[in-house]
């Protein structure tokens, strides 16, 4: 490690198992807001960008990712699905989501016994919704969950078959998340395409298939798009819901406030999103030379923008380590800093989180975290994989 960083090593997933190393991010924001961060070979290192005001799309011009594509091509790809994920597009599902949320909560809370909040509640809602907009059988949900987990949590031996950084994953280098599980997802995507070709449908997969037929997507892009939606729509919202429950349990005054004044829940969702920051960073490649805080970034350099740090930037969020469900304004970068890649599923994630807590809080007389709260081993996703709780209903 170079002197500027000292012991700081943001690229080692072990450092996130007991909690996000917020002290390191604090130090970097203050002393080295843009710093070169070396890595273990074969990776070549990256620029770590940790302050909120540095995450400006136009200023940086370093994005090149649908997540790996620049406009105008990116615009063409995003258009395939964008209407379905607009506020109006997901709004039509509001009643349906509420029904599903009620069903999930009924089942989880029925016995009054301790249970794992992640597997019984947080994991259920996003995947059920995904099955619905994909129009695939709800019975496929367990497979989709397992595949998504294996891909996104590819640094966690508990979840992934081929742990990146520990095993030789060279063979999977060209697959999303360097994960062999991507092949299962692609095969599933192929089966779904065959079904759409045999019988016309009006769903997200049909839109992707049509785009492929029209030559807007090639085979690889169809696969990657499918995998992106599966992963992005599933894990992230799950971790938001789990983190929210943990934060509310640890801040009973905030929980009480929302129970007393449920109209505050939509605003509270923004603080929940800031607090949770399930996607801790994105890694891009500079497309041109750029100077940032006096540091010379060259075209081709890797740049990692740390949303988890920007969301605790004291220059933007007064008292950033205070969980305050009334925080206004709340200019978090949990869905990205804006610009063409801003999260396609932001409306959906907000809607799911809002509805879940609107339905859960009235049914919650008390909550006890029985622990231990187990976190995913990852420097990318800020996630909880198990959280045993005891919830008592009124
Ligand atoms: C709380 C939940 C979620 C979080 C924290 C999250 C976070 C993010 C972030 C940080 C980005 C990159 C933004 C950027 O680089 O500017 C992104 C992009 C994306 N997200 Fe989400 N996401 C969430 C939920 C969802 C959902 C439910 C879907 C829907 C299936 C989704 C689909 C996507 C897609 C397709 C992109 C790529 C957009 C593009 O490149 O144009 N996300 N998300």
Q: How would you describe what is shown here?
A:
There is one protein chain. The protein has 394 residues and is of the alpha+beta class. The chain is 44% helix and 10% strand. The strands form 4 sheets. It has a 4-stranded mixed sheet with strand order 1-2-7-4. Strand 5 and strand 6 form a beta hairpin. Protoporphyrin IX containing FE binds next to helix 11, helix 12 and helix 16.
Short description:
This protein is α+β, with helices and mostly antiparallel strands and 394 residues long. The protein contains 16 helices and eleven strands. Strand 1 and strand 2 form a beta hairpin.
Estimate the helix proportion, in percent: 40-55%
What order do the helices and strands follow? HEEHHHHEHHHHHHHHHEEEEHHEEEE
Number of strands: 11
Point out poorly predicted stretches: 58-65
**How many H/I helices?**
16
Question: Going across the major beta sheet, what is the strand order?
Answer: 1-2-7-4
Structural class: alpha+beta
| Biggest sheet layout | 4 strands, mixed
User: What small molecules are bound in this structure?
Assistant: protoporphyrin IX containing FE
Strand content: 5-15%
The first-to-last residue Cα distance is 54 Å
* Average pLDDT, all residues: 90
- Computed over alpha carbons, the radius of gyration is 21 Å
- Give the CA-based shape: globular
